[in-house]
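Folding Task

Wanted — backbone structure
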Amino acid sequence: MSKVTPFLMFNDQLEAAMAFYTATFPHSEIRNAARIGGDGPVMSAEFVVGGQSFMGYNGGSYFSFSEGVSLYVDCDDQAEVDEYWDKLVNAGATPTACGWIKDPFGLTWQIVPRRFMELIRDKDPKKVKAVMDAMMTMVKLDVAALEKAYDDA
């Protein structure tokens, strides 16, 4: 485990969340899970999603996630954006805006194509603004539309 590890407090969905996350993202695994009793529900666990270690706990309804913290998914291209977006939507996630989507467990993800980050690092502020303005109109990020905004600026 790394020195600093995100700790996620779920209501009572830790086991289902881990199963979904590890099935959705490569380089993922459940490292250990502590159950109540021999076959009771998982109360705490250590798991890896996309190479990032997490700790999780079923803390009850007192805890909830907010968009103040989100998980950023660096996607190679539009195909990878579409793949993760579709998997999240098919699992019951709610798209919000600007590449953000809230999964059925309440955790918010940012599904971002690497090309977007390249475009907004441009030294021309007019091009950056055009890309940002285009992104602000999107739900799922669209690389072709972002590149068009950049080219047209």
Q: What stands out?
A: The CA atoms of residues 11 and 61 lie 5 Å apart. Strands lie at 7-10, 29-35, 42-49, 52-58, 70-75, 94-95, 100-102, 108-113. Helices lie at 14-24, 78-90, 114-120, 125-136, 143-152.
